[in-house]
Amino acid sequence: MSKIALCGNPNSGKTSIFNALTGTRQHVGNWPGVTVEKKEGHYTYNQEKIKVVDLPGTYCLTANSIDERIARNFIVEEMPDTTIVIIDQTNIERNLYLVTEILEMRKNVILVFNMSDEAEKLGIKIDYNGLKKEFGVPIIKTIATKKEGLNELKSEIKRMEKNIKKPNKIEYSQKFEIFVQKIENELLNAGVKKGDLRWKTLKLIEGDIEIRENINSGTLTKIDLIISELQRAFKNDPGIVVSEERYKYIAKIVKKYVKRPKETIRLSD
Ligand code: GDP
Ligand code: K
Ligand code: MG
Fold first, then answer.
1. 42, 58, 115, 147 — which has fewest CB within 10 A?
2. Which residues are listed for Mg(2+) 2 binding in this entry (predicted)?
3. 23: domain CATH number?
């Protein structure tokens, strides 16, 4: 049975998508050891059973809160066959932050651009084909509350299963990438899997305690030296540097692929 995970910002429409996919075939429990609600369900497509897990809503995937840790550990450890990110198109910059993190972590990602009705009302126009090429992952437009786009989503999930695909690499500034490269080399020497190098490097720059715990102290010492170099070069807290790099990238692609009336831009400021 293949397994898919739904993640996204709070209020992006995750639960609505989950309900639309699974209907009444769902089970609500708790994540092990914590009182955070865990929703699982399934649906059948072409006689195949697909398991769906609704992850806690998060804006990013640091180890700072229980919700973020649950979502991240599920994505990293349980390795869903497909990871679906639900995006509220009326709040695209903030929603794309999580997208950059997921794209760095996982193969087989589908982006669901939800709230298409609200976006249309606000006059937001998105070049979905452009974004699809930029990210190298499928994009499905939905109105979860009306079940619009759900069949397309199911068929894309099916297609993904047979066609494992890595998203395109997100390139940050050259100045920043030099440090990323150096840390990736240290992690590679320490035996970290190739597919984990980039996201673990960014997490280490953010100071992520859980990732640090799993790296030998010799390697950590070398990495910490590179991070202090970075701090000096950017004259800023390394965690802030990472989020600024992500937002600079997001601003660049939003400028390229999203058109909004001026009033909408002012409202979301
Ligand atoms: P979650 O926090 O990500 O699980 O989001 P929910 O599924 O609970 O949705 C948040 C709110 O947005 C609810 O009031 C939903 O009814 C509403 N909603 C979800 N999807 C859509 C959509 O496509 N269009 C509109 N207009 N509302 C939606
Ligand atoms: K709403
Ligand atoms: Mg929910």
1. 147
2. 19-20, 23
3. 3.40.50.300
